[in-house]
Amino acid sequence: MYISKIDINNFRNFKEKRIEFNDGVNVIIGHNNAGKTNLIKALSLVIDNERPKRLNTDDFNKNVTLDELKAIAPKISISVTITKGREETPDDLVTVSNWLTKLDSSYEALLTYEFFLPEKKQEEYVNTLSVLTNETPNALEKAWKIIKHEFIRFYGYKIWGGKITNQTTADSESLQKFDFQFLDAIRDVERDMLTGRNTLLREVFDFFMDYEIKKDGTKTLDEKYQQIKIKKELFSEKASLLIEDLSSRINNGKQEILSYATKTGASFNKAKPDFEGSISENEMYSVLKLIVEYESGIKIPATHNGLGYNNLIFMSLLLAKMQVNADVDYLDNNAKVFTTLAIEEPEAHLHPAMQYKFLKFLNENKKEKKVRQIFVTTHSTHITSAVSLGEIICLHNQNGETKIGYPTKVFPDVKNKKYVQRFLDATKSDMLFAQKVLFVEGIAEQLLMSIFANYIGKSLEDNHVAVINIGGRYFNHFLHLFDSEKENTIPKQIVCITDRDPERKEKTKSSFKKCYPYEYNQDLVGFDYQVNPSADIYAKGTHQNITFFSPETNKGKTLEYELLMSNPSLKLLLTESIDNKEELKDLMSIFETDDSTVQDLMDRLRDSSANTRIKDSININTTFDSEEKKKSIIASRYLNSVGKGENALELSFVLSENLSKKGTDDFIEFNVPKYIKNAIEELCQ
């Protein structure tokens, strides 16, 4: 069996929400305050028998109106559905039999936690809050204070089994069959595990003591019991000898110690104090300390390890304890049937390589049935890149409402899903965590977007925007994840920046080739033309959460081209890796001359086939004015002279350095291309 879903009503950031789970590993991700910890807490309220069940007013969802609060006392309801799993044990169905809501080829059982005000207090509650009206200053805040100070102490909780309408209390014996272990992000592992005085370690020691006998399949239970009994008796005899030896060594000193008791009057009525003792195996555990032994033979206490290393050790001990709890031969009727492990932010103390190893470790324990179901909350892109899309559950909080996304359910075909799965490495999976995403085609845009934002007084970082380079025009694959008009998606704000990329082909030829904007649609008799089809989808205002931005229709091309169209005389853009630098400097200087003409710029172009094409096309063009043609000449030469990756790195450096001089005479004005400026402003509203 496994927990297939949870329905959370009125608990913390969950107003009314259902989350579905996998039979196995569940990796729960989302930005800060999306509700990951609250989800695990909700689970624990239903199935964790060790944690307190009482709540307080801060645990209610506060997204309610005054009229709703006045009508009836707020109530928290959390329902967990338990379903037949891929791998069943004989005790599974027996454990949940009293809570069944469906029984056919499969089965479903329901457990519901409720935190509520008793019925007998409802009338008093309604009368007390009736004095508040919508005209009362801070009425909603006052209502919650009344609940906190006058009614929360009367609240109680119940865990119901089966359909809630039956109001049948879940039997505690069956509830005790659930083992829910939760490791929060902030934990003191040294306190929790490092010596045998600790309860966790003592329980593990006790179970694994004489383990070679306990796991021997050739012996009957009675034979195992007798063999272990002999070992215990032998240990007791040896321990008695140690105690006797200790007593003899302290005998004379003991008389001196106890003489003080006689003098103080502690000895009376013919009774006197003395020292005596015995020791059991369990008591001997307290002298054992966890150490780490290196290959060289050096041994150091675990207290000297790093926190991350000790966390891994602690998790291994916890899984060992879960094995203890589930062993029927050892605990008989007290053995746990369903073991669940929940871990909050394992990356808090683990570097990336250890995160991957840790996840592999958890999966192995699942396969070996040492734990039945695993829940991991994380901000780690390394963890999400190491699991399948089917194991990821995304939480996204938007305007106070929590949305749930299931990446594996959103793709229309397997091809899209496989593409995204391969793409999500440790850098790209940041798109799943950020509040907003900016998709770009290449490395140049990725490197420069944050700097462009700073030039227009915006910050992508402050607005929690992830810039994701998808290496081409493959937007469609990723938009399936975020399209808020479809189910199971992650409805965060998405902006895509794409090149215009005009192309043409001769009527007699079969393939399209790149062309300049001033060549586009200039010879409809001899050529067919096309532009990037992505450039015209999802224009601003046409979709709920996805918007595309691109250069101007019929006049735009690529980022590098648009940089010079917006800054035709900015020599700052001529970085070290640029070819034809002197030619470009001269073109910029000519452009700056007030009475310069298009012919002046064309005369400066050196002889080459590429430049001949530029001249011929500019001369033929009838739609661009003189200013646009001059800019186009410079932009075309720049485009043909730039190497994208290296130039982008150099540009990011020089533009950042220039920005640091803002407010001084050394600062040089730089114009962010309009389509990029619009995209950034859309994200930074």
Describe it for me?
Keywords: Endonuclease, Hydrolase, Nuclease. Residues 432-501 form the OLD protein-like TOPRIM domain. The chain is an alpha/beta fold and 685 residues long. Among the domains are: 2-188 and 334-389, Rossmann fold (3-Layer(aba) Sandwich); 210-311, no CATH class; 564-670, no CATH class. Helix content is 40%, strand content 17%. The chain has 25 helices and 21 strands. Strands 1, 2, 4, 5, 6 and 7 form a 6-stranded antiparallel sheet that branches. The chain has a 6-stranded mixed sheet with strand order 8-11-12-3-13-14, with helices on both faces. It has a 4-stranded parallel sheet with strand order 16-15-17-21, sandwiched between helices. Helix 20 (581-592) runs antiparallel to helix 23 and helix 22 packs antiparallel against helix 23. The chain is elongated and about 125 Å long. The model has no long low-confidence stretch (mean pLDDT 88).
End-to-end Cα distance, whole Å, is 47 Å
What is the multimeric organization of the chains shown? single chain
Shape: elongated
CATH topology of the domain at 2-188 and 334-389: Rossmann fold
Strand coverage percent: 15-25%
Biggest sheet statistics: 6 strands, antiparallel
The CATH architecture of the domain at 2-188 and 334-389 comes to 3-Layer(aba) Sandwich
Low-confidence stretches: none
Number of helices: 25
CATH 4th-level superfamily of the domain at 2-188 and 334-389: P-loop containing nucleotide triphosphate hydrolases
- Share of helix, binned: 40-55%
Q: Structural class of the helices, strands and pairings?
A: alpha/beta
Determine the mean pLDDT: 88
Secondary structure tally: strands:
21
Q: What is the level 1 CATH name of the domain at 2-188 and 334-389?
A: Alpha Beta
Gyration radius, to the nearest Å? 36 Å
